[in-house]
Amino acid sequence: MSIQREYRPNVAMIIVSHRYPEKKEIFIAQRNDLLDIWQFPQGGIDKGEEVKEALFREMEEEIGTLDAEIVAEYPEWISYDFPSKIADKMKPYKGQIQRYFLLKLGKDAKINLATEHPEFSDHKFVNVEDVLSLTAHFKKPVYEKVVNYFKHEGLL
User: Fold this and answer.
1) How far apart are CA 139 and CA 61, in angstroms?
2) Would you list the domain boundaries of the chain?
3) Pairing with 146, which of 43, 72, 111, 138 sits 20 to 30 Å away (CA)?
């Protein structure tokens, strides 16, 4: 009999530059533990923590800034399963269930990847059309769904 494992609650962010909405550049960061894997910043929601509280905590922990404002929120939770290589490290979770936000960086926001526990080695801003070709394969269906939603809403 197999044991059904839970999905880890998580926040994820699609961050656009301060030039938004005139220029729709999306922030992606390169993982420091996997070569050529780029992703949106994201992180777990601690027990008892509010979603938006986790959003800003994770943003500061991962990219070193709090200078951003929420533009929009994806209207539902969305999940994905970890590939088997990652799932073994993430027990007891078999995947993540995420809440996505579209955020705009402040004009004077300073990105600092050299945080206390760095997850990323590099970052860049890319066009909406290019973001899916650079991201991890197992996250692509979720990224595609969320990006297309924000595009349909006229936000990307």
Assistant:
1) 21
2) 7-152
3) 111
- Whether the model clears a pTM of 0.70, i.e. scores above it, the answer is yes
Give the separation between CA 86 and CA 91, rounded to whole angstroms.
9
Spatial separation of the C-alpha atoms in residues 33 and 30, rounded to whole Å:
9
Cα distance between residue 60 and residue 77, in whole Å: 22
**Backbone phi, psi, residue 127, to 5°:** -65, 155
Residue 53, CA distances (Å) to 46, 48, 123 in order? 10, 10, 23
Contact 87, 81 (CB under 8 A): yes
pLDDT (tens digit per residue) in 144-153:
999 999 999 9
State whether CATH 3.30.230.80 applies to domain 7-152: no
Nearest CA to 40 out of 154, 144, 155 is that of 144
Note whether 106 and 67 are within 8 A (CB). yes
